Hints:
Strand content: 5-15%
Bound molecules: uridine-5'-diphosphate-glucuronic acid
Strand order of the largest sheet: 3-2-1-4-5-6-7-8
Distance between the termini: 65 Å
Number of helices: 19
Amino acid sequence: MKKAKISVIGVGYVGLCTAVGFASKGYMVIASDSVAEKAAKINQGVPPFHEPGLQSMLEEAVKTGQLKCLINQTEKAVLDTDLTFVAVGTPSKSDGSINLDFIESVAHDIGLALNKKDAYHVVVIKSTVVPGTTQDIVKPILEKESKKKCGVGFGLCMNPEFLRQGSAFEDTMRADRVVIGEYDKKSGVTLENLYKGFYGKSMPPTIRTSLSTAELIKYASNSLLATKISFINNIANLCEKLPGADVKVVADAVGLDKRIGPLFLNAGLGYGGSCFPKDVKALIACSKNLGYRFKLLEEVESVNEVQPLRAVEFCKELLGNSLKDKRVAILGLAFKADTDDMREARVIPIINQLLKDGASVTAYDPFAIPTAKTIFQNKIQYASSAIACLKNADCCILVTEWDEFKQLVPEDFTRNMKQPILIDGRRIYNPETFSKKLKFAAIGLGK
Ligand code: UGA
């Protein structure tokens, strides 16, 4: 059977991994993005962000001609292909709801292209959008601009993405499940068949459902994961008040219950990134609009707001209350390991509070320093290595769980710091070994 030609509008993490994934399996893919620099990088085979495993696959896809990226040419991308994935951003507005400007403008351009096309074409929304968006916003725009009826002239699906930054490409190639929200059966069958061709024998469990259920599945997944994290962070806070208690042991034991599972029970300084904070806020706002107050998620969010500041409290406890003129070393700036992304990174409120309290801050991260410079400019110092960051520091806060920080031993801290005080914000160090050699505090560790 002839392989469908795919277009992908918006090449962030989701769009680019989708595009490269399909290209790597022999599909012809045309991407389009409004940012010219991004498109240029992609056409040179260079991902515009740090993502393990992506570079070589992208290089190959560009070299073989399976993938090319246009600059802001949605119409052309649609006209030259059979199915279009929409993966543009849906950023937060100040009231927590999502901004649909990109989705609306792309839907408009796709509609215009559909008007010029005779062949059946399926539009697939991959962007995270609140329940009702595909049906009530996207469909009317497509129908108006194309002058065609959805389900007759073109198909429409909502297909949420569950990839994680840091393992985005791997997650695209080996998904846990495929969720297909469909406007009508024909649209759903077309998309399911595409995925059957893509995954072959390893086709993941597939859920075919309504558009709004698919939209809600995405928010329910991310909100439940965020809830697990805030829950374990509350248990961590409780452990700190119980001599001898350790949240890590609690989490390991609780996670052995098959009904709960071990993942996303790592206590720390809270969740960041471009998804959890935004999606929790959006589900709260969407529920409110529907006349329902989602109190549990409001609490999940407020726990996450205060959790990073626990690191600053530890600093004060260990340094004798005042941070004035104290030098604090920060290990890790990215919102999690294996990415250079700092969106909603928990390090941001930590550094802001340290600066407010009069401390001087030196930070190191293997990939995120260029991003950090756009946020903090010269308000903090940037070190070229973990050891350089520790030099003459009064206190160190471990914020991101990069593998290279896991290699550090107590002597790295005792030899280089002015005062060997370490706060493990992600529980990567063995408390027994470290507390013997330095003043050591960790999230969720009872004194
Ligand atoms: C998250 C979801 O995990 C993906 O399934 C989803 O597709 C994605 O959002 C999205 O909506 O696009 P991501 O934001 O890349 O993926 O990162 P996660 O690995 O989920 O981590 C999010 C935050 O939670 C990080 O700051 C991480 O440090 C924190 N976290 C995670 C914890 O504090 N404890 C944990 O046990 C796990």
